[in-house]
Amino acid sequence: MALNTGDRRDIGISFEFFPPKSEEMEGQLWKTVAELQDWDPDFVSVTYGAGGTTKAPTLTAVTRFLNETPLATASHLTCVGATKEETHQVIDHFRKAGVKHFVALRGDAPGGAGVPYQPHPGGYANAAELVAGLREIGDFEISVSAYPEKHPESRDVAADIDMLKRKADSGADRALTQFFFDNDNFERYLEKVRAAGVKIPIVPGIMPIQNLTQLKRFASACGTVIPAFLDERFAGLDDKVEERAKVSVDVAVEQIEDLVRRGLDEFHLYTMNRSPLVSAVLTNLGLRREGAKRAAGAAA
Ligand SMILES: Cc1cc2nc3c(=O)[nH]c(=O)nc-3n(C[C@H](O)[C@H](O)[C@H](O)COP(=O)(O)OP(=O)(O)OC[C@H]3O[C@@H](n4cnc5c(N)ncnc54)[C@H](O)[C@@H]3O)c2cc1C
C-alpha cells in the first residue's frame, strides 16, 4: 500500500457529518456535502444526538443524503435511555428511509460524558448488545466505535478491548476510532486488539483541527490526549487564520502518511460539516477527486 499513484482508491475514506441545528447550519452542511461529494467517499455517516434527542434531525439529514446524493450513507444510532422496543422503532424508521448501514453506539449518560452510565431497564446495556439486536433485525452493515486511548469510563485499555471484542463477536463489520494524534500509541493499541483476536478493520478517526483551543475542551471530555507537539505547531497562530489552516492540513497529512507507512489503508475523517481542511488534506496526500478524474477522462 502506497500513496503514490494519485488514485483516490489508494486508501479508503469515509466522512462524518452531524445533523444541523439551525437553518444556517443546514446551509453549511449541504454546501459542504456538495464540495466533498467528488471525493467519492466509500461511505458517509451522520451522528445521532445523545439521549435520542435528535432522532428527527438525523433522520431528516440521512433521508436527504440517501435521496439527493449518490453517497452511501450510514446513520449513527444510540441505545441510551430507551427500551429495546423504542430502539427497534427507531431502527424501523431508519430502515424505511433506506438505511442499510448503522454506526451502533451505546451513547453517553444523559448528564453528558463523565456522568456514570445507567443502562435503561429493558434497554440494550451497551453497544455489543445493540449490535446483536441489529443483527437479529436485519442484514445491516454495522460499524462500531473504538477508543485507542480508552473510553473515559473504561477501567483500562484491556476493558475497552474486551468491549470491542464483544462488539466484533456480535457481528460488527468495522470499528471507527475516536480521533487521536499519537500514532505510536495507536499502533500499540492495534497490536493488543489483534492479540485479543479482534479481526475486523479498525479505522483511524482523523480530526483536521479547526481550532486547537476548542478541540482541547472536547478532547478532554472524550479522553483524547492532545500531544505537546500540537501546542508547538499552533503557537502564535491564534489570529493567523490561513497559517493555522496550513498547519492543520500538514498535521493531518503527516498523521495519515505515517499511518499508511504502518500499514493502515482506511480513514474516517471528522469533517465538522466543513470542507476546506478535509479537501486540502486529501489533495495534499496527492489524491485526485473522482469527479475531477471523471471530468478529465471525459475531456480526453
Ligand atoms: C466513531 C464514533 C462515533 C460516535 N458517534 C456518536 C453519535 O452519533 N452520538 C452520540 O451520542 N455519541 C457518539 N459517540 C460517542 C459515544 O456514544 C460515547 O463515547 C459513549 O459514551 C459510548 O458509546 P459506545 O458505543 O462507544 O459504548 P460501548 O462500546 O458500549 O462502551 C465503550 C467503552 O466504555 C466502557 N463502558 C461501557 N459501559 C460501561 C459501564 N457501564 N461502566 C464502565 N465502563 C463502561 C467499556 O469498557 C467500553 O470499552 C461516538 C463515538 C465514536 C468513537
Automatic annotation (TrEMBL):
EC number assigned by the record: 1.5.1.54
Listed GO biological process terms: methionine biosynthetic process; tetrahydrofolate interconversion
Entry's Gene Ontology molecular function annotations: FAD binding; methylenetetrahydrofolate reductase (NADH) activity
InterPro entries documented for this protein: FAD-linked_oxidoreductase-like, Mehydrof_redctse-like, MTHF_reductase_bac
Catalytic activity: (6S)-5-methyl-5,6,7,8-tetrahydrofolate + NAD(+) = (6R)-5,10-methylene-5,6,7,8-tetrahydrofolate + NADH + H(+)
Alphabetized UniProt keyword annotations: Amino-acid biosynthesis, FAD, Flavoprotein, Methionine biosynthesis, NAD, Oxidoreductase
Family annotation (CDD domains): MTHFR
One GO cellular component term: cytosol
Enzyme class (EC, first level): oxidoreductase
Pathway(s): One-carbon metabolism; tetrahydrofolate interconversion; Amino-acid biosynthesis; L-methionine biosynthesis via de novo pathway
SUPFAM superfamilies assigned to the protein according to its UniProt record, in alphabetical order: FAD-linked oxidoreductase
Family membership: Belongs to the methylenetetrahydrofolate reductase family.
Alphabetical list of PANTHER family matching this protein: METHYLENETETRAHYDROFOLATE REDUCTASE, METHYLENETETRAHYDROFOLATE REDUCTASE (NADPH)
Protein name: Methylenetetrahydrofolate reductase
Gene name linked to the record: metF
